[in-house]
Amino acid sequence: MTADADENRERPDVEGTGASMQLPNPAGSEAIKWGAIVVIVLAILYFLARYVIPLF
Predict the structure, then answer these.
(1) For residue 31, how far is the Cα from the chain centroid?
(2) Which residue, 53, 27, 33, 26, is CA-closest to 41?
(3) What are the structural domain ranges in the chain?
(4) Which contiguous run of DSSP H or E holds residue 2?
(5) Do the beta carbons of residue 25 and residue 7 sit within 8 Å?
(6) Closest by CA position to 20, among listed 11, 29, 30, 28
(7) What is the pLDDT of residue 56?
């Protein structure tokens, strides 16, 4: 990987404004994050359906 692929790297202050811009995250990291959230929610729903709801 190149140094440009680092998603947490900040651009240096080129214009002397005192502010730095953060590089945007690649689309793949967003997909992985939301995919993980979906898997966790489905696991919780499965647990509830399998073990908690039958108790009532």
Answers:
(1) 7
(2) 33
(3) 25-56
(4) none
(5) yes
(6) 11
(7) 81
Amino acid, single-letter form, for residue 10: E
Q: What is the pLDDT along the chain (56 residues), one digit of tens a residue?
A: 555 555 555 555 555 665 666 777 788 899 999 999 999 999 999 999 999 988 88
C-alpha 31/C-alpha 23 separation (Å) is 17
* DSSP one-letter string for 11-23: ---SSSSS--PBP
Q: Tokens standing for 32?
A: 């992985």
- Give the N- to C-terminal CA distance of the chain in Å, as an integer: 53
Q: Where are the beta strands (DSSP E) in 1-56?
A: none
